[in-house]
Amino acid sequence: MDFNNFSVVKHPLIEHKLTIIRDKNTSKKEFKELVDEVAMLMAYEITKDFPLEEVEIETPMGMTKAKMVSGKKVALVPILRAGLGMVDGFLRLMPSARVGHIGLYRDHETLQPVSYYFKVPPNAEDRDFILIDPMLATGGSAIASADKLKSEGIKNIKFMCLIAAPEGVKAFCEAHPDIHVYAAGLDEKLNEMGYIVPGLGDAGDRLFGTK
Ligand code: PRP
Ligand code: URA
């Protein structure tokens, strides 16, 4: 899709794993493991523009100058529930990242997001935020979450999802042109119930076995 702030993270391993995630015969255990692995692979791409600084260290052979990630501290913010499934994969690459939570669910009738929880790490203005949710469907949940983060004074935000629908990409990218959206897959459309087609079904239910 033609938005400067949207990209699909392309990698053969991501595509392969996403295919198994989509398969309705994939078990709950494997689904969770693969979502975790794809999140880790995506984290590699999403952090690729993080600034580096030179530090001096001593190896067993002597002193040298080398690079380390500098700049702001990172906060991951999964949108409950399904966003939780992508946190550990990211944390494996950046174990010091703090984790906030946004509690939202989509009303099944209206498809509007209903908010029930919000907690982010302190000194939020000084951090880089990565908002996480596997599904970008109508975009309502992600837009409301980004609105809330911004209302708390947070400016540096990226959004990461597994599967995006064109409708959600358009709505989100227009509402938040300053937030880059990273997806592992861009699907065809939403159905009349607001589910992504072909998608993967209900991400929360498949992660937590609630259906
Ligand atoms: C799912 C998903 C997103 C939202 C996407 O959550 O994890 O948060 O739907 O839909 P939208 O783009 O149309 O807002 P759901 O509301 O099913 O809650 P859950 O994670 O608690 O299952
Ligand atoms: N939420 C999901 O979990 N799946 C969809 O396809 C759309 C919204």
TrEMBL record:
Keywords (A to Z) from UniProt: Allosteric enzyme, Glycosyltransferase, GTP-binding, Magnesium, Nucleotide-binding, Transferase
Cofactor note: Binds 1 Mg(2+) ion per subunit. The magnesium is bound as Mg-PRPP.
GO molecular function: GTP binding; magnesium ion binding; uracil phosphoribosyltransferase activity
Keyword Signal carried by entry: no
Needed co-factor(s): Mg(2+)
Record-listed 5-phospho-alpha-D-ribose 1-diphosphate binding positions: 81, 106, 133-141, 202
EC number(s) given by UniProt: 2.4.2.9
Annotated Phosphoribosyltransferase domain residues: 8-210
Domain of life, source organism: Bacteria
UniProt: uracil binding residues: 196, 201-203
CDD domains given in the database record: PRTases_typeI (cd06223)
Annotated signal peptide: none
Regulation of this protein's activity per its record: Allosterically activated by GTP.
Keyword Chloroplast: no
BP GO annotations: UMP salvage; uracil salvage
Enzyme class: transferase
UniProt function note: Catalyzes the conversion of uracil and 5-phospho-alpha-D-ribose 1-diphosphate (PRPP) to UMP and diphosphate.
Protein name: Uracil phosphoribosyltransferase
Native source organism of the sequence: Denitrovibrio acetiphilus (strain DSM 12809 / NBRC 114555 / N2460)
